[in-house]
Here is the input.
Amino acid sequence: MFNYLSLLAFSLLLMASCSDKYNELDTDEEIPKESLTMMPLRLETDVKTANIFNMVVFTMKDSTIDELKEWIGLPVKYSELDSLFWEVEGSPSRVNLLAKGTGSLSLKSAWGHYFYLPGTYKTYLSGYKDNKRVVRDSTYIKINANADFLNVDWNRIDNINQNTGYTTNGTLGYQFRILNRKSGNTVYSGLTVAFDSIDYRQNIINLGKKERDALSAYMTKLYGNANFEGDKELLSEQFKQLFKADVAKDEVLKIWKTPKSNIALLHLKNDKDEAFSYWVHAEPAAQK
Here is the structure.
């Protein structure tokens, strides 16, 4: 089955912890501005609205630094910070934007991020010096789910045969990958999951279960409860009726139906508990 999938290299940001004061993210109005010496670093996005699995670019801007000189001005000015973090509200991990080493400094002033679920997200920028917060800003981004399946519109499907990863910069602990394929006149899409903490060069015990649980939970959040599950014979029969692509599988676990897509959680058994033994398979729904 998915032996044609290859692991992609993702660019992950370093993560670290910071002062408990970081938890005061949403209390700007409670802190007298005159009591703080704030640095004029602001958080911006290239768009205000995007679709799931479409990149949103975040940037840091300082109004006192000429845009043409930001590449050197920002690192110089903000090298004095002890820490600088970015966070998506509700995510378990924070993203470290400032890394210091012996004789070295790295400041990430722009980064891409993908959101997997629709909603309005608040993200925060927070910087500390001498245990005091001196950078504080936030911004909202509205995420929709308007495509036929994830970011795929069946009438103009692209990235055929390209296994594309969509980074969440370590904020979720896992990342999704989408592979679009075409067989004859049938187009279809596959979704797999990769976990940030797993070394895929090793044989991982219970990896399949982690994949199954993550994919099932995600599809349920996005599309609601499955239309068919539990009865193996019914699932097998429904899969034959709803899907056209010939894909290798041992088991159909769940099937979702939307107005534009038929979606199934599939399992291919193996002896080594390899990556991608569970995946989501989707095809266009028959139009009435």
